[in-house]
Amino acid sequence: MIGRRNLPQPQPRFLQPGHDAIARPRHAARAGDGQGRTPSERRITLAIAVFAACFALIGARLVGLAIIGGDGASRVAAVDSAAPIQRPDIVDRNGEVMATDIGTASLYADGRSIIDPGETARQLATVLPELDVGDMTAKLASGRAFMWVKRDLAPRQQYAVHYLGLPGLDFRNERKRVYPNGKTAASVLGMVDIDNNGTAGIERYMDRTLARPDSFGAPRFDRNRTVMLSIDIKAQHALTDELEKAMSEFKALAAVGIIMDVHSGEVVAMTSLPDYDPNDPMAAPEEARFNRATLGVYEMGSVFKAVTLAAALDSGKVRLDGQFDATKPMQVARFKIHDFHAQNRWLSVPEVFVHSSNIGTAKIALQLGGDEHREYLRRFGMLTRPQIELPEAGAPLTPARWTELSTITTSYGHGIAVTPLQVVSAISTIVNGGFKVEPTFLRRNETQLGARVISSDVSQTMRGLMRMVVAEGTGRKADVAGYPVMGKTGTAEKAENGRYARNKLITSFISAFPANDPRYAMIVMFDEPKPTKDTYGYATAGWNAAPVTSRVVARVAPLLGLRPATKPQEQQMLREAKLVSFDAGGQ
Q1: Order of strands, sheet of 486-496, starting from the edge strand that comes earlier in the sequence
Q2: Could you list the active site residues?
Q3: What domains sit in the chain, N to C, each tagged with a CATH number?
Q4: pLDDT tens-digit readout, 168-226
Q5: DSSP H/E element including 192
Q6: What gap in Å lies between CA 220 and CA 84, rounded to an integer?
Q7: CA–CA dist 319, 314 (Å, integer)
Q8: CA 408 to CA 386: how far, in whole Å?
Q9: What is the Cα–Cα distance from 330 to 339, expressed in whole angstroms?
């Protein structure tokens, strides 16, 4: 029994003088308190304030840890805070989808919440076997607040990881770029990186011109915008298919094909082989990702003769009825110029072109004059980098000093290297009435002709000469019944170690169709094609690039809505060109 002395004793209440003996109510006592609260309430309020301040500090610290990590170093990648990049759809000229975004998930880890890094890594490897257990263990053991484990998971992979139930792992919703047509038009579309940033082709162009950076520096697009290309997906597929078959047939190292509207400059199809699948670009070798059509520069050979002759006729210094001596090789300093299809006689201007005479073309260029020849090359766009949407635009290689020898060699496509796109643009100018063509990969709603380069009469004459090359000269194998083709062959030896390799050729055929009313220009080019049994041991353009041109035209002309021409229409075209048909012979 506890003693009474240990119990609390009641305290006596003393009345102050002047106070009533009757106790007042509690609220009356508070009302008389100068602070409005009892000492106990003031202590409780202070305790609450202290606890609130402590929780605020702890919350601020947790936010800091989430952002910079425990050691003060930056831990959370910006992508963790930024919204995923959503890119506009890319469609062809008819609205067919060529590139679009889909939702996907990526796996990341918070190292601070990982209980056993080694066990977590081992279990992850059971569902994601491509992960290295050792590397992943070290990564998870770092204690970083944010780290990617694997980007772009398939739905089944996401489900499998989720089913493991491992702490410290979570998913982030992202956007993935997909290309429904696979390799088709890869050289135009380009590619994106793992974060959906454009790195090549039209995809890169979109980031540069259509996007605005957000606070994290990532591109942001108008979600309602769609990018419409000039490409026709059906024509693109046909061009690629024919080039792939021909590349295999002639065992060529590479192939290029471009089809362009001669009035608007719209590229309706373009292929650079070998190519890659933009859905998985890194699976292809680096050379397959090189755009030979717009970035590669080549000595194109005799296709340049069309530009040289058009310039000479337009200047008035060379007449269509002129004659040039091609009876023997032409000696220039220590160099001797030969004709592959030597006629060993005087040749008229049409014969120089149709027989593809180097000697005759060199003399035409000298009669035109070196300075004026170079000025025409500039007007045709052969001396400057083309201004196109694709970042892959090659700069031409031109002579350091424009000597007489430079004038001679460039007249037939040696000593100057340009892109295939520049050549097809120049041919478009030659056949469209003489107006400069600016190539584009975006759909144009109207024709945009540039400055006049040659007269309409010279353009009409060149159409006739190019038609004669196909009808009677080295380009006979390029013709198509119902869709008459006009063009020019080009075979150039590749330069290696300061010399030309006779057995390594660049062959090409430039063309326009239909010849009676040219709507499209095209180039087909092969890098080091090999002779076959069917070509009788020849590897020149007339035996490979020309017949492939015929196959492509036969397939794409109907797809592009062209109506077959009649024989009277073709004959009328030759009459308007003031040309008389003759048998040029040769291939």
Answers
A1: 267-273, 254-261, 520-527, 499-513, 486-496
A2: 302
A3: 236-576 (3.40.710.10)
A4: 999 998 889 999 999 999 999 999 998 899 999 999 999 999 888 876 777 788 777 89
A5: strand 191-192
A6: 9
A7: 9
A8: 24
A9: 9
